Protein 1
Amino acid sequence: MSTICETTLRVRYAETDQMAVVYHSNYIIWFEVGRVELLRQLGFSYLEMEQDGLNLPVVEVKCRYRHPARYDDEIVIRTRLSQMRTSLLGFHYELLRKADGRLLAEGESVHLVVGRDMKRTHLTGKYLAAFHAAAEVAQLATHAEAQAATQAETKS
Amino acid sequence: MSTICETTLRVRYAETDQMAVVYHSNYIIWFEVGRVELLRQLGFSYLEMEQDGLNLPVVEVKCRYRHPARYDDEIVIRTRLSQMRTSLLGFHYELLRKADGRLLAEGESVHLVVGRDMKRTHLTGKYLAAFHAAAEVAQLATHAEAQAATQAETKS
Amino acid sequence: MSTICETTLRVRYAETDQMAVVYHSNYIIWFEVGRVELLRQLGFSYLEMEQDGLNLPVVEVKCRYRHPARYDDEIVIRTRLSQMRTSLLGFHYELLRKADGRLLAEGESVHLVVGRDMKRTHLTGKYLAAFHAAAEVAQLATHAEAQAATQAETKS
Amino acid sequence: MSTICETTLRVRYAETDQMAVVYHSNYIIWFEVGRVELLRQLGFSYLEMEQDGLNLPVVEVKCRYRHPARYDDEIVIRTRLSQMRTSLLGFHYELLRKADGRLLAEGESVHLVVGRDMKRTHLTGKYLAAFHAAAEVAQLATHAEAQAATQAETKS
């Protein structure tokens, strides 16, 4: 299993602004595109997760902008799992210009795992298995470490 | 009761494109801003309507663009009810530049009245009364004409 | 040369609204995606056109919504040239759900041909040739008819 | 001079997603709304700055989401200058639900000061004076400290 998912999209005119570059909030939407394709590569869709009562609302997002993306550029989104705790997932993104491989931006998003009632819950079944496998390949903190971290977090 | 609702908004940088004008799909979102304020002027919010199980999905929209809106412009949205049938509402919009009153764009949207199941339904109670009053003031086709029109439409 | 361009995109979460369908202004952005790919199929990019000093601002857009597009749906955009006059182009769009071919929406956009100064101008060179060829294949009004129509329009 | 600017906006339907909350990238656009109003409070508009050849492209943005904003909520955006160096400005944002004052999200954006050529430049004249005054009231690092910091940053 590859730990990194690569997806490509093309910049829409609607995404540019009058500085003739992509308006910065659109990169956050592109993160979503990358994340959703990473899940598909793990063997399921985010749609399925929602239908199974699991949502991943964003609790934190950051992005560092290095070079502007421009209209009609093809953008490669490289997404990987960067954090996994009992009810929290983190993803890391790199946005590259396809033409020359230049890194345009990078960022991270952190998501809670919640149920239909929007309360914290745990990943289970195939979702837990898939994320767990991805976390192992990515050599993220082991489950034991994650549990310890989560417990510490819950106390604070 | 005034038949026309005027609301003002300011163009966001995010709404511009690299032609240094507002990207055209944003006008459609501004129509929504105007429509929602017209409802509030009629005595209720669209939020309330939804909570009462009534939705107004768009079935048709058109917009004619006359002069570009630009960054930081204040835009006046003039909205009025333009059609009212048993389970269909139409709204008309004019977008003006506040600084000089110039008409930038005008358009129309047509909405079905549906219930929580997304099936056609009828306006009732205070919603029916308010739209009916607005239709009368705006001198739209009378209820009888509207019913006839709706029946003809249903047959076709 | 095919007169119809088909492109596919996948609905983003960002494009949905709380009715759990795609918010209607996004279809207008998808029209742009289709239009841009039609140009590419004609042998050039809209980016090139802009760099050559030709812009195609939208002067009119309409959309009829038949069935909602939903999150993660793959959408096929079928775009064709629908009008061609000296300094005006029209495009027609059909949006279909890829899974079952169902028509979700259709619409049209009309564009002026303008120069860097945003004043009306004429298509020239390879752009004129390509659109002309597309218009012929699509059996749009002949150039003579178009000229007559444009003259009439200019007088009014 | 107040160091904090408060602006209010109302959540648009277009900004919601199918989780029935505001889609997270929209908060980044709201940051822009707050920032632009802070500048206006400082005595000029961002439009003027651009016309005078100064742009403030975003180089970093982060947002922490605490409670969801919902359709039709009125949102108060509290913006303040949080960093000021020779060619770099930082802004801090708090988004509160107007109805009960609850903090929904907070974040920061960092901006380069660039000229028309998109190369780093310095604030000058009234812009420098206004930001400097705001930085003093906000008790940010003094100009001397800022210069030292900028020099250190440039070397690294």
Note: Chain D touches chain C at residues 13-14, 16-21, 23, 25, 71 (CB under 8 Å).
Protein 2
Amino acid sequence: MIFMGRYSYWCADAARMEKAVTSSTEFPQTNARSAWLSDDEMQAVRAHLPIVYVEAVPVRLDGAGRLVSVGLLLAPTPDGSISRTLVTGRVLHGETIRAAVLRHIAKDLGPMAIPRLPVSPAPFTVAEYFPDPQITGFSDPRQHAVSLVFVVPVDGDCQPSQSALDLTWLSPAEAVSPGVAAEMSGGRDRLVRMALSFAGALP
Amino acid sequence: MIFMGRYSYWCADAARMEKAVTSSTEFPQTNARSAWLSDDEMQAVRAHLPIVYVEAVPVRLDGAGRLVSVGLLLAPTPDGSISRTLVTGRVLHGETIRAAVLRHIAKDLGPMAIPRLPVSPAPFTVAEYFPDPQITGFSDPRQHAVSLVFVVPVDGDCQPSQSALDLTWLSPAEAVSPGVAAEMSGGRDRLVRMALSFAGALP
Amino acid sequence: MIFMGRYSYWCADAARMEKAVTSSTEFPQTNARSAWLSDDEMQAVRAHLPIVYVEAVPVRLDGAGRLVSVGLLLAPTPDGSISRTLVTGRVLHGETIRAAVLRHIAKDLGPMAIPRLPVSPAPFTVAEYFPDPQITGFSDPRQHAVSLVFVVPVDGDCQPSQSALDLTWLSPAEAVSPGVAAEMSGGRDRLVRMALSFAGALP
Amino acid sequence: MIFMGRYSYWCADAARMEKAVTSSTEFPQTNARSAWLSDDEMQAVRAHLPIVYVEAVPVRLDGAGRLVSVGLLLAPTPDGSISRTLVTGRVLHGETIRAAVLRHIAKDLGPMAIPRLPVSPAPFTVAEYFPDPQITGFSDPRQHAVSLVFVVPVDGDCQPSQSALDLTWLSPAEAVSPGVAAEMSGGRDRLVRMALSFAGALP
């Protein structure tokens, strides 16, 4: 019964979304069919498959390309608390990794942010989030997520938008300080140190 | 009704799989719940979410660590034809990337293969497969797959197993020859050249 | 006596160069003492030590960060012929890798070029040039050079300057065409393909 | 005259070194012409050119390729004190990077060590050593060295040899502990953390 409900929902939703997708100009080259999945359905899928995520560590560079500061967002976490975090989100069906990174940066840092995506499609690391924090040190109570993580220099005017409450630019030393690390969850303090290490800027 | 059917299937299957998983020594540390998804269900999910894959380019090295040859499998493709291909497969729910790479290597190259996984969890590249080959050059008629690709030195005795019909070790020059490239599909000829390039062995 | 001889030469030179360096505003933060080495001395050192080089593959990106074109210079080679080449040059004593890359880009592409150095100090590959082309496929008749190679997106107005005769922006397909490859020497056609591969843009 | 002087010195030295090199079994496959440089000459060159180094962080992996421990040497430093350090040394004229890494590992870890060089010739980072520790955080009182750094899994029996007094295998947590970090010099404690970060094993 439960599932029949879901299936009919999918069908009804499919017709509705088909129209939405057709009339949408937002993702001209992507077929954002994953929008068909309701919250309940997404929750069901999350129990059975790893979900593809992208994560961006926004940074400011000086004229010689050296990392000067790291941008950390203040945002609600899945468990309802407030936490410092990075730009992150799902990759939709039909969406390229690059498009997903750009979409989530625009969503979190505002439309005036000018990100400089790395030339290579390879992430500098892959963070594997499991409900159990013992497996990799990265944890997400909701799901098994495979997150491709990029360090992204961002020019322009960044304004926290949508769900983010604040955006703070910290020096590498501040970003790895115990106080700031304690305000991050799911292992993201470690991810910040890994990003700084990759950039040659780990204090 | 359909879903109830599916749900009961899941429950029945769950009992069956639980036993299989419990009695299996193959994936001691992974919770292979995604195996609960039937082919039909997997097909439904594939239409709505990108699926996480790993891909390994098996290579032989000489004593100084230089790439000497590349291992290509001969295997049936999703469309039914026979094609040269790489070690590839899904990442299961609860399974780490490393465990998935090792499992697929054991599956395709046999139990006597001794793979040397790279130290870093970052893939050398990410291949994004779409049904439409125009988007990235990598295509899969069944799905949108995000594939983390690794170059994996393999020692020991490799024997094509399971679905693979044959395994051939080719020199870099042979591996990029037009004849061999024509026998690969979905853009995997390009992936082989990218792997050789990463290894400093592109002819 | 031998050393005194050499030292007097160096000392005389030092006074001359000290002045040049002091009056120069070109490398404010580097101590360009290697400029003290005359051509003859540099030639002598080249016979006994590997020399550190940097190399940059200038590229243009589209809005999503995808590689659109590669910039190739037309310049005289060490053997006197004209050849398509990349931005390249020595790292001076006291100079950082980043400063060297920026200096050579400014030298070859002009002062209006705006390079975006990668965040990471790690090169995407290391090209080892030997007089003997058999060793690595990269050759330089003058020396053993260890070249750290970077793919560098360049904005702004690029004008070939100094020794470069011309600068041409080519699509990936053009850049790897046999005609263009034949106009490159020392293995740089292969380096261009490796850069495209790293960027996910190898045709 | 000056150059003749220098050359006669080199020629005399060459005869002496030729003998040394011929009778040596230490560098079987390399053309160790840089060995012709006497200590005084090397010192003179060091004042004028950056010197190419390789550095290896020896690690032990478990069956799944995860980093389990890091090997740190106890050895005299250039300034005469004793310090924990990594496998490190110059690249000789005519020697490939791979050959240099293998030679220095054999020199420091003994002939029974079985290193697994990474497939890619690109180092995971480049450490730039300057006499002034302010420039990059990596310092060497003797010289400007450009060091290509690799994480190298080592199997077999490792025995500290030649100048190394001891070899200790430490867990990642031990390797980054303040006590151990204080025993390293020139910024190598940071290099160890960077290597662990690259390997996904930074605590």
Note: The first strand of chain A starts at residue 51 and ends at 61.
